[in-house]
Design brief:
Distance between the termini: 36 Å
Number of helices: 10
Largest sheet: none
Number of domains: 1
Strand content: under 5%
Length: about 200
C-alpha cells in the first residue's frame, strides 16, 4: 500500500503543469495554442523568452528530482525510487489535470536521473548540450541524450531497476518526439532561439 501511495504521489507531482501555470505571467494565455503546443520548457522559451524557459525547466527538473528523493526517504533499495521517477515522467507527459496532454518529459527525466544515476545523467546532459549547440535542434539533443542514457547507466554500474527505468523513459521520450522526427526528416523542425507564433488548435497535437 505504501509503495502504491508513493508512486501515485510521484505521478501527481510530475503532473503539475508548471509551463501551463506560469507562462501566463509572460503574456501567453494558453501555451497549447502556441508554437508546437507542447507544455514544456522548450516551447515556453520559444513563446516567452529565455528567462521563462529557464524557470520552467528548473521547476520541471525539481519535480523529477523530488519524486525520487521522497521515494528514497520512504523506502529501501533502488527499485521503488526508480518506479517513482518513471511515474513522475509519465505524469509530466500525461498529466491528469490537463486531460493527459502534457510535455515530452525531458527536463523531468533530467531531474529523475540526476538523483537515480548522476554518473550517467552528466554525460547524457553533455551530449544534449553539445548537440543543441552544434545543430540548434533541442528535439535532436533530447532524443540523443535519452537514447544514450540506458547504455551509460548500464556501463557505469547502475542497478538493473535503474537501467530498465532509463530504457522505459527513453522509449516514452522518443515516442513523444515522433512528430519532431518527421519535421527533422523533411527539414521543417524549429531551431533553438526562434520565437513561436500562436497556432490553430489542430496543430497542437
Amino acid at each position: 500500500m505504501m509503495a502504491a501511495v508513493i508512486v501515485l504521489a510521484a505521478y501527481c507531482l510530475g503532473s503539475v503543469p508548471f509551463a501551463w501555470l506560469l507562462v501566463r505571467r509572460w503574456g501567453v494565455t494558453d501555451l497549447r495554442q502556441v508554437g508546437s503546443g507542447n507544455l514544456g520548457a522548450a516551447n515556453v522559451l520559444r513563446a516567452s523568452g529565455i528567462s521563462a524557459g529557464v524557470v520552467v525547466a528548473l521547476l520541471d527538473i525539481a519535480k523529477g528530482a523530488a519524486s525520487v528523493l521522497i521515494a528514497e526517504r520512504l523506502s529501501e533499495g533502488a527499485a521503488l525510487p526508480a518506479i517513482a521517477g518513471l511515474a513522475a515522467i509519465v505524469g509530466h507527459i500525461y498529466p491528469v489535470w490537463l486531460h493527459f496532454r502534457g510535455g515530452k518529459g525531458v527536463a523531468t527525466a533530467c531531474g529523475v536521473f540526476s538523483i537515480l544515476a548522476p554518473t550517467a545523467a552528466l554525460p547524457a546532459l553533455a551530449l544534449f548540450i553539445g548537440t543543441v549547440w552544434l545543430t540548434k535542434y533541442v528535439s535532436l539533443g533530447s532524443m540523443l541524450a535519452s537514447l544514450s542514457l540506458p547504455t551509460i547507466a548500464y556501463a557505469t554500474g547502475s542497478p538493473t531497476s535503474i537501467v530498465v527505468t532509463a530504457a522505459a523513459a527513453c522509449a516514452l521520450i522518443v515516442f513523444r518526439h515522433r512528430s519532431n522526427l518527421v519535421r527533422l526528416r523533411i527539414g521543417t523542425e524549429r531551431r533553438f532561439g526562434r520565437r513561436a507564433q500562436e497556432v490553430p488548435a489542430a496543430r497542437t497535437r
